[in-house]
Structure formats: C-alpha cells, structure tokens
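Researcher: I'd like a structural prediction for the single chain below. Treat it as a standalone chain; there are no partners to consider.
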Amino acid sequence: MTYRPSGLLLCSSFLSSLLATGHAAAAQTATTTTQVTATTTTGTLAGTGTPATAKKPVRKGAETVQVIPHSTTHEAEQVIVTAHLDRARSELSPTTGASVYHFSRQALENIPGGDNAPLNQVLLQAPGVAQDSYGQIHVRGDHNEVQFRLDGVQLPEGLSVFGQALMTRFADNMSLTTGALPSQFGFLQAAVVDITTKNGTTNAGGNLSIYGGARDYFFPSLQYGFHKGKWDFFATADFVHDRVGIENTTSSFNAPHDLSNQYHFLGHARYTVDEDTRISLIAGISNAEYQLPNNPGLTPDSWSQNYTPPAGATTNSDSLNEHQKQITDFAVLALQKEIGAFSLQDSVFTRYSSLRYSPDPTGDLLYLGNAQRAARSVFSTGTQHDVTWRAARDHTVRFGFQVFVERNVSSTTSTVFPQTNVGSTPPTYGPNPFNVYDSSGKTGMVYGVYAQDEWRPLRNLTINYGLRFDGVSEYTAEHQFSPRVNLVWKPWKNGTLHAGYSRYFTPPPFEIVSGASLTHLYGTSGAPNSLTNSKVRAERDHYFDAGFDQTILPGWHIAFDAYYKLAKNLIDEGQFGAPIILSGFNYRHGQVNGYEVSTSYDRGPLSLYGNFAWSRAIGKKITSAQFNFDQGELDYISSRWVHLDHDQRWTASAGAAYTFFHKTRAPLRLSATLVYGSGLRADDDANGIPNGLALTPYATVNFSAVQTIHNTFGSAWQGDTQLRLDVINLGDHTYMLRDGSGIGVTAPQYGLRRTILCGISQGF
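Model: Treating it as a single chain, here is the predicted structure.
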C-alpha cells in the first residue's frame, strides 16, 4: 500500500470542524439527566432520562434505588434485580489474596482507540504484561497461559494466533487477576481475564460507529441493546479491514503483503425469571483472513538447486502470496440462582476454532523446502458449576467443578523434494517435488473439582484455603491434588497486606499438540530435525505471592507485589515452520520470579496511572517435541539454564486522561498511554547461546482526543455524538519485537509505525 497523507489531512480537517462545533455546544450548562442509580457493593449502575424531582429512595437488599416519577415501576425493578444478580454472580468467584487490576467502562474509554482498540493492547496497560508478535501477550513471564471468562464462565482454548477472537467492544468492564489464585481458578493460571459483557440494561439503546484512517484502516461497528419485561437483549457486530493485520517483517512504514479482513459478532440474551433466578445465553463469532507479510532478501536453500519453477511463478521472497484463515465460534448458556444461603451458576458451553494455512506453492518450496497446506481445528464443549454457601457469619464455603471434552483434528498436504542420498551428508535432492498427505485426530478431556472456605477469624483478617483436583486425558494422562491458601490482613486504615501459596496443574493446551507422524516426511526436504517426539506433559508449579496496597489520599492508590514460581515440565510454545501455528514443548525445570509496582489517581476529570515490573523466566532441558529443535540447541539446554524466548526483564505502562468541560453538554477528553519494554530474547550466535541476547528497549506513546456532544439533536433524536482522533505510536518510533532468531521464532517482527485514525459514532 502507498501511504496517502492527503486522506489523513481530510480526516483531520473533518474532525477539527466537528470539534469546533462541540466547543460551541460546551458553552451551554448541562442538565442533570439521571433517571435510576443503583448502588451496590461493587459499584454504580446508571441510566439516563429527562430531569425530574426524585422520590424517596427505595431499599431492596443491599441496593439503594432512586426512582424518578416518570419512570415505570417495572423499569426500576429491572435495574434493581440486575444489580442484585450481578453482585451475586461476582461473589461466586472471589479473588481473595490475588492481585486484581480492574478496567472500568471509563478506563476502557480513556485508552486511545476506546472500544476500537484490540483487547491485547488494552491488557498491556496492566502491570507485568509484555507484548509479543501476532498479538500475543505474556503475563508474569508465562507464555499464553491466560484464561478468558465471560460473565464468570471460562471459555475453552482456541486456535487464534493473531490477537484475540474477543473484542474490547464486548466488554462493559473487565479485570485481570494474577498471583496465587484461589482454588476455583484452574487449568490456565498465569492470569484470568474476566469480561463482564454489555447487556440491554447497562447499555440500552444503539450506537453506530465509523472508524478508520491510515493503511486502509476501515472499522465500522454497530451495537444495540434493550430490555422489555423480563427479557434483556444486546448485540454488537463489527468489520475490520486494514493492512496491519500481522506485524511488519521490516522496519518500513508499510508492511509488504499484509491485508486482513475480520468479522466479529456477540449476542447476549437474558431472561429474568424472578428476583433470584436468571437464564442467559451468549454467542459469538470471529472470522478472520490474513495475508502473511513477506520477508524480503531471502536466498533459496540447497534443495532447490536442480528445481525449475513453473513459468510465471514468483521466486522473490518479497513477492510471495501466503494466507491464513481463522474462525472461532462460541456459545455459553448459564443459569444463575439464589436459594436462601446458597448462590449458584450452572453453565454449558461450546467453542469451535479452526485455522487454515495456504502456502505460496513455489516460494515455500524454494525457501523452506516444504510448501505445506495445513488445516487444524478443535471443537470443545463442557460444563462449569460454581456454588457459594454462606455457611456462617465468618465462613463462606465455595465449591464446584469444570469438565472440557475436546476433539482435535489436523491435516497437512506437504509438497516436498525427494532426497536422493538418504542417510548421507550433505543431502542432495531431486528436481521433481511430490505431495505427502498426513492427518490425525484425537479426543480428550480436561476436568477439575474444587472446594474452599473463606474464613474470617478476626474482623481485619481473612483466610481463604482450599483444594483442587485436576486431571487431563488427552495426549498425556495425568492428575494432581493442589492445595491453596491466601491470607488478607488489614492492619490499618485503607491498607491491605496479602500473601498466598498455590499449587498449580496446567494441562498442555490440546490445540497446540499435533499428532502428525514424523516418518511421513523422512527422506525429503521437509524432514524434521530428528524423529524424537516425547509427549508434551502437564506443567506442575509451586507459586508464591505477597504484596500490599494502600490508599494514600482520596483517589490515590499504590500497590506492590512480588512472586516466585518453581515449575516442573514448564510449558512453552513456539512457531516451527511456515504455518503460523504454535507448537508446545516442555522444559524439565523452570523458574519465574519478579515484582510489580503500580499506582493510580482518579479524581474528578483527571485520571492517572503508572505500572512498573521486573521479571525473569528461565528453563532447562527440553523434554518433549524434540524434533522441532537443532541438536546443538538440545545439547546446550540439557545442562544449562536459558532465558525463555518471551522473557522480558523490564516492563512498564502509564496513562493520563483529563476531561475538559466535563460538567457541560460537550466534554472534551484528552488521553495518552505509554508502553515500555526492555526487549524480548534473541540468539547469541557469537557465543552459541540460545535466547542469549535481549533486543533493543523501546517505548511508544499513543494519543487520543475525544469530543462528546450529549443528546446532539435534542428531543428530535435522542443519542450522543462522539468524535475521536487517535494517534498510535505518536513519535513514530521504529522498534523490533522479534529479530527472527530465538527458540521457536522464525521471522522478524516490528512494532506498528505511526498510525493516525479518526472516527465518528452516533447513539440512538
């Protein structure tokens, strides 16, 4: 693509004229429009309407509701019941003793891009989160061991590699929980991202948005929600078209061959049977197609010396045509019920995820010796049950279980050269490529059951202790009992100390373990490094965590946390070969430790935060999937500790937002965020050390200006108008995420250069 500054100037001019309109409207004093405000133990829920004199507040349980005369009694009751059940659902999965980073609705909107920002970019604003290529994130030195929950229900893992199938637009708010997790959290335990989805009560009405700018970026979206009677509906859909789908393989402004088209949908329907019973259904679709960026300047290897490419075939590495398509569909059906001293949520869920890679038939043969058409899919279904029993004044007992049943299918068609001197070195190859087909399938199960007691022996001391039993029966059959204990002590006003220990059992992600035969490609240019392929085993950890948090002044909060993980069969992942499909393997021994410091200030129109983290992640002796590695790497790592390829020593993030004219009809919000990384790992070829070097540190700043005009068209058409200007990588800093070396790294990737985007959204 050619960079077109004229289009950006037009976008900027358009936005400037609308901002001027917004400032003119700001001169008018806003009228209070609060209709119903339900205050619960977890926050505030607000709606909008026309001004009126309030009646006396009505108490119901722990909620206080202020009903406006023109509101219908039924609408007020709907808000009351929603707040009551939302609070009960959150209490099913407490985070006692863990480290929790909350993203409120306002915090999500303050981040440049707002709902248009990818979810992984939002999570980078939490402490201890490092960015990687293909939209991956690493939390506290782990690879991809992050579980995602929708309204408290854990989703099975999928095959999404480029970013996430879940979008920021789905979330009303969310949290990221790390540390020594209580026993209800199992399987993937580096972090828990719990997304509270939007619904027709909290997000009534509709919104149409058009967003875009540089690099053919075009991002329309639509959402609509409403509640009627006992029913509540919400749906959102969007389409993303751009030329930044995957990280650039060069430092140039535009990546070669990087077009992507993505479709996303989320629908949410809820039926409130009574004030203690609710049934909900969430369904989502993600469909994405990507061009894979080319890596210019490569030289064909020895296997192509006698090969004559077909007439008209592209042979330059900067002009190849590789594609990858990813699909993820999921659905969650949940029943929530309050029965006296018991609260419960029972759910069933299913997820289908597939990935298909289409090679460049000639180019992949020339440069890789294998033009492999690959397809992989995983179908997961299961159930989750969580129960809270308020057994006594000082004891809250929780118990439940989870079961996932998964079916993994893999098929490949490899076009390769035959080796003419099998068993000899150096190898020589014939000129006529041929096809090798391989397929495999496997059905497996992951299960876990837990029980725990939250005990308050003293007014300011809470002890949460429990036990899990987890098992896996897939490519490996293993199980483990896992005790966990957390202590939370509040020794003084607005101060909290916590410490915890958790035993973890992490099954190998089913979708990244392939059952393909290694012998099928023996004696060809696509032969593996060896035929050794020990099975990937479950990771077993001892995890220790301690820290404190303190409110210094109203609105000003600080926190510190330190952690240490001692791992057996530590699971890591890497990309081996042209298809961007991650493959899992184990280090026999692993250690991860670090600390985090965070602070935030929220007062009136001003919001500030800053996070700083140090981490070290190392492993020794690769004990599975050995065929992916050179023998020299295996020999070195067998007796020496090495940095994991995603180990980043220093990580930091910060943000600031200020809203001008916040008491008027036309507030203007300016915000900026910063992400710093000391660099992921690369091979030290001079000394023969895998992952022996750290890449160059980098820091990027994103900027945003958002002009809102409340109720723009008055009574003729109720709804707010919002205009936004976002600049990603404001300083146009060129930085490298990967240099193409390192364990499980096959190509260089650079961070996004300066990108200017603008948009307009209209509520209705």
